[in-house]
Every structure is written in structure tokens, then in C-alpha cells.
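Closing statement on the 2-acetamido-2-deoxy-beta-D-glucopyranose sub-project.
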Amino acid sequence: MWIDQISCCLLAVLCLHILNRFATQAKALVPTTPQIHELTPDYISDTLEVKWYEGGSAFPYELNAIWEIHILHKKPLKEAARDIIQSRLTGTEKLLHWVWTSDLPFNCTDHYVRIRYCLVDHGICSEWSELAKIPGKDSGMYPIDKVVPMGTDMTFCCVWKRGESMTTINYGGCRSGHCWTETLTEQSMALHAEKVALSPSSGFNAWCLAETTEDSDESIYGTVLFVGYPPDVPKKLDCTAQNSEEIMCQWQEGRRTNLYGTRGTHYFLIEQFSGKNITCIHARRGQQHFQCNFPILTDQTKYHFTLEAYNNLGHSKASVLLEID
Ligand SMILES: *[C@@H]1O[C@H](CO)[C@@H](O)[C@H](O)[C@H]1NC(C)=O
Ligand SMILES: *[C@@H]1O[C@H](CO)[C@@H](O)[C@H](O)[C@H]1NC(C)=O
């Protein structure tokens, strides 16, 4: 009798425990609404990083989740991008992240981000998180003074002030290429230029005109686009001792980058054995040859030179060995 009571009691506790577990499981499977933890837009590279906690600790066991990330813009709001990533909710608070590059500069118009997740094995999805905003800029033509490789599909935009209306939008490269416009909001318009051609040395202008409706005051918004190539591999790199103090390295640029001044190619001469790194300022000599001098180091007869070439679009290098006696 006494033993019966105990086992009955134990059974009841066990039942309660199981029932509780079922109850929490059923409750846990109403997915909680996720929240964006951190939104980091870069207004120069037009990349965006979104971070959020996966919220796995809300569930009593591991689950497979598919996250949907949604970018919206324009008025009325339209989808600009959508992506999915998978994760396994393991009960820890893992920070997930997603990186995206926008074709349309963030300055052009407000962008919004939202996320949600679906539990794959249960076929249910959470609500969307609240919209997080990446605010656009007030007025101007964007992107500002960008350097791009030849053949890039470009998107410019004009943002004008409240009270103004846009009358003209254009890009210098449209004369030879294909361009078309797209309305973003009542205060902004995009101009798409397909496969941009090499620009003149001063760049191609992109501009728009807007006038105030009351006194037809005109505003002009403009920007410049530089179109070129990344540096070619330096050709015919050759280093020789000039005297007891200096080694002179010469090379040819290869294909022209079509970029000049601060956007032109920067060269560095690195000697591998000593680790010495020389900035070749004014490396250009004459039409064809570039030149950079390197000091002869005491007690060093073997030199392994690497010439590195950099510009806004990329880098390349060439190497040569030299032994002096
Ligand atoms: C966006 O505007 C800021 C100034 O407000 C500027 O510094 C930045 O270069 C612009 N980004 C692009 C891609 O034009
Ligand atoms: C050489 O120096 C330049 C300028 O200080 C730097 O940008 C570059 O990364 C250096 N290269 C190496 C291989 O150290």
C-alpha cells in the first residue's frame, strides 16, 4: 500500500513534467519576432551590414531556421533586394550578419531593412521585424566623384529640394551609350548608364537641373565619373646599380589606366630581404619608362625587388632579382 502510493505519486510528477514540456514546446514554436541589432551603412562604398541575434535560447531544442532579409526603397515602398541565409538555432545567442552592396547609392533615397525567419521543420515563420531605416541625403547628384572600371553598369541619381521640380537629368557618357531614367520618389530620380565607356581625363559629368515652381530659380546638381582600368602588371621591370649608392629600377606601365593625378597609379618598391619599402613619387619619366631609385644597403649584395602598383580599381605587381658585386 505504502509502495503503491509512492509510485502513483512519482507517476503523477512524471506526467506533470511531460505535460509541462509539451506545453513549453508548443508555446516555444510561436516564433518570436526578431529584431535588428545593428545596421551599419557605408555611404561611400554603398555597402550595408546587418547584424541580429538568432534568438535560439527561446527554444527548448535545436531548430533549423531560414532567415529572410528584405531591403525596400522608393515611394510607395518596393523590394530592392531579398536574400536568405540558413542557420541552426542551437540555444545559444549567436550573432548573425549579412552584407549587401547596393547599385543605387544610399544617398539617393531612404532604404529600409527588415528580417524574419522560418522554422523549416515546422513550416512556420515569424513576423517581420520592424523596418530599420537608412536615410538618404537632402539634395545633390550621386555618387560623388566615383572611379569605376570600364564597362560597369552605373546608376546615378538626382535628389532635389522640396518645392523644386526636376527638368533635366543627363550623363556625359550617354551620347555614346545607352541610358534610361527611373523615378524613385517625388524628389529623386535615377539615371542608369549601361556599360560605361572610358572617360576623358577630367572625367564625365553627370548633372541635373531643377527649378522652383514659384520664381523659376534654377538649381544645378552635378558630379563627375572617372572610368578607367586597374593597373596592368608592370612590364620589363629592370634594376641596375647606378653607382655605389643607388640602384635604379625602370619599367613600363603596360595598358594605360586612363586615370590621372591622385587617381593615377601609385608605385611602391619593396625589397624582400631587407623589408625596405620605398614610395616611388613622381615615378614617371618621359613617355614610356617609369623609374624609382633604391639605396644600396651596406653588407647586402642580393636584392629581391617587388614593384607594387595601386589605384582605386585594384593592384598588381612584378618582381626581379639583382646581385651586385
Ligand atoms: C554620400 O554623401 C556623402 C556626403 O553627404 C559623401 O561623403 C559620400 O561620398 C556620398 N556617397 C556617394 C557614394 O556618393
Ligand atoms: C609600402 O608602403 C606603403 C605606404 O606606406 C603601403 O601602403 C604598402 O602597403 C607597403 N607595402 C608593403 C608590402 O609593406
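The first strand starts at residue 38 and ends at 42. With this model delivered, the sub-project is considered complete and its resources will be redirected to Aim 3.
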